[in-house]
Design goal:
- This protein has 96 residues and is mostly helical.
- It has a single domain, classed as Substrate Binding Domain Of Dnak, Chain:A, Domain 2, CATH 1.20.1270.90.
- It contains three helices and two strands.
- It has a two-stranded antiparallel ribbon with strand order 1-2.
- The chain is elongated, with a radius of gyration of 14 Å.
- It starts with 6 loop residues before the first helix and ends in an 11-residue tail after the last strand.
């Protein structure tokens, strides 16, 4: 059982979330209500991801870890809602 958040652990989860961002493919028609929601989910994920980088650079690994998990959670929720095609990738997302 892990009892601390290390730089290596953070780097591992940054890489996983980065891959999740790369896996997303837009599928919704532009300028629709769901397209707006997809953009909002993406922007929330990106903001939390950027916050996680900021916290990590400041040496605040606990808040970096929390922000990183929020980032991935926004992507995962969007994938579950069908806001993006994630190619049935159930290693990065809770789909299928």
């Amino acid at each position: 059982m892990r009892t601390e958040i290390t730089k290596e652990l953070l780097e591992h989860y940054f890489e996983i979330t980065k891959k999740a961002f790369e896996e997303l493919t837009e599928i919704l028609p532009q300028n629709t209500h769901l397209d707006t929601i997809a953009k909002d989910f993406y922007n929330m994920a990106k903001t939390y991801f950027d916050d996680a980088k900021y916290f990590m650079e400041k040496g605040d690994y606990i808040n970096a870890f929390g922000a990183l998990y929020y980032a991935h959670a926004w992507l995962d929720a969007g994938a579950r809602l069908g806001l993006w095609d994630v190619k049935h990738n159930n290693k990065l997302f809770t789909v299928d």
